[in-house]
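Notebook, bench 3.
Goal today: get a predicted structure for CBS domain-containing protein from Thiohalomonas denitrificans so we can plan the truncation constructs. The sequence was checked against the plasmid map this morning, with no discrepancies at the termini. Length recorded as 149 residues. Pasting the sequence as submitted so the record is complete.
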Amino acid sequence: MSVGEWCNREVIVIKPDESPREAVWLMRKYHVGDLVVVKEDPDGRRPIGMITDRDIVIELMAENVEPEKVTVGDIMSRDLLVLHEEEDLVDASNRMSEQGVRRAPVVNQRNVLVGLLAVDDILEVLAEQVSDLVRIVRKEQLRERRLRP
């Protein structure tokens, strides 16, 4: 299973020169808690950072910083874990765990943003696999009863 099969392809993005107010507005409009910060170039959008609702609270609200005096680029997380869409999902999960991140942008071979993988997406995969295993056990039990009444 690849990251590209399971990532969310509808990623809400923002540019680093936008205001935190714009970030909050986008988060509210799309009901998300994070945005991928992108740099536009001729090939497409390249992820350069992430900003979360928590970043805004911790960096601005808790520090009494006026949102008009900073940009998204000033408060975004720059130590970005980027996953490749052809990367194995288990390997990606391990990398996310090692770095302690719950979400990671997904890029194609040209390093252009194509999605976002979240822990929730990985949990969905695992839940499906566990359900499949439960079905196997049930079918095995039914088979056993038919063969050995």
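The chain has six helices and six strands. The chain has a mean pLDDT of 91.
Flagging this for group meeting.
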